[in-house]
Amino acid sequence: MDLKVETRNVELRKGWQIKIDEEKEKLIRHFANFVLRLRVSIEATTHHKEGGYELKLVASVPNDTVVVSRKGENVSPLLVEAFDVLNLQMKEMQRKKRQAQKNTDASADEGARYGVIRKVSPYESYGFIVSQDAREIYFHENALKDISIDALTEGDAVVYGESFGDKGPQASWVRMNN
C-alpha cells in the first residue's frame, strides 16, 4: 500500500507519524490487497468553532475511493477516530462485495474459464493469461476483480470470463482462483 502524509500550516510530529504507521499496518493486516493507496492530510486551521485541526484520510480501493474527514482540537484523537471510521467503512465495503459476489457467482461461474498469468505489465495496465487450451488471453487492469494488478505475478492461477475483442480473445473479468 502506498502511503502519503501531507501537512499544511503545521509540522508533522513524531507521535502522529508513529500512530499513522501503526494504523497503516493494521489496514495491511486486515485488508491486504484491498487498500491500494492511502493519503493522510493534516491541516492546522483558524476556524475556532470547528477546532484547530482538520484531518482527512483518502483511501483508494479497487474501483472506488473512501474519504474520512474529522475536525478537532487535538490530532492524536482525530487520527484514532478517523482510522476507526475508515476500518468500519472498509469492512462494510468488503461485506457488500462478498454479498454481490455470492449473488453473481452462480451465473458468472457458468462461463468461467481457468488459466495462469503468463505476463503482467503493471505500468502499462495489462497482462496475459494462458488458457487451459494453451491460448493467450489479453486482460486490462480494469477487468480485475478484488485484486490489484501490482499483486499479480506470473504463474498465479486465475478464473476469468472470456470475450472477443478487436485484436482477439480478451478477459472481460479476472479474479484469483482460490
Automatic annotation (TrEMBL):
Residues 114-175 form the CSD domain. Pfam families: CSD (PF00313). One of its GO terms (molecular function) is DNA binding. Residues 83-110 form a coiled coil. Signal peptide: none annotated. Gene3D superfamilies: Nucleic acid-binding proteins, Ribosome hibernation promotion factor-like. The keyword DNA-binding applies. The keyword Oxidoreductase does not apply. InterPro entries: CSP_DNA-bd, NA-bd_OB-fold, RHF-like. Keywords: Coiled coil, DNA-binding. This is Cold-shock'-like DNA-binding protein. It comes from Desulfocapsa sulfexigens (strain DSM 10523 / SB164P1).
